[in-house]
């Protein structure tokens, strides 16, 4: 039965699965069996592994809940290892969300546990999270100190023989800080890391003036960051999307007079019917002009149109 299976036979395959971003069915079965049988001694390890999998699958709230449950149960049972590892999962989420209050609470909970030795995976997880959090002050964080700490964490992982980039996403943070390309041929399964990969790729495309391709990567990445509440990266995507709009011609060149008028009215927030009434044309004609506008300007939404029209207005006031 699942309760008779040694924890090692579940934990290590599940850990490997977590690094690869894939579910491990026996872990879910063992977790259910332990819950049903009231086998509390098995829950901290199983919940910690489940939290790792959930975090890497992009289910951050579920992961955080399971990590805290693992920490609570493990602390009650006097298990020193799993509570610290579980808190490390929650710390990573707090850091990427820029949630300093939550991170401070997690540090307090870690301090209440038996001392974690230097170089322990939980200690490295908290060091990594602190470095990430230090960069969250609108870019005003100490980049050099964070860079040194992230490099030290990566070196410590390598010293333990841990080189898989998903064990702790230190490589992604270093790539971002150093503005270097991600590892060739490696696309993370983790939605958060994948979105960061796309953000980096979009910036390279933008630099080569491939604006449509860049936007096609930026918009889904922004949506992923928004869902995860990773505000710093959501803001970076929004900033880059704004730059893409600003890179367009500030004047309505190539547009017909009616297209320009429709753009100004719709860009100001008016509905199709309101625009039609103001210009003494039919709503169908407004729709026709909008389709042409979207095609000529290379955009897909009223929000983008409003951004472009705002640049026209800015040019006129200079």
What is the structure about, briefly put?
The chain is 72% helix and 0% strand. The chain is mainly alpha-helical and 318 residues long.
Whole-number radius of gyration?
25 Å
Coarse morphology: elongated
Number of domains: 3
N-C termini distance: 76 Å
Low-confidence stretches: none
CATH level 3 topology of the largest domain: Serine Threonine Protein Phosphatase 5, Tetratricopeptide repeat
Q: What percent of residues adopt helix (DSSP H or I)?
A: over 70%
Query: What is the annotated CATH architecture of the largest domain?
Result: Alpha Horseshoe
Structural account:
The chain has 318 residues and is mostly helical. It has three domains: 7-180, Alpha Horseshoe (Serine Threonine Protein Phosphatase 5, Tetratricopeptide repeat), CATH 1.25.40; 191-247, no CATH class; 257-316, Winged helix-like DNA-binding domain superfamily/Winged helix DNA-binding domain (Arc Repressor Mutant, subunit A), CATH 1.10.10.10. Helix 1 (7-20) packs parallel to helix 3 (43-56) and helix 13 (257-267) crosses helix 14. It is 72% helix and 0% strand.
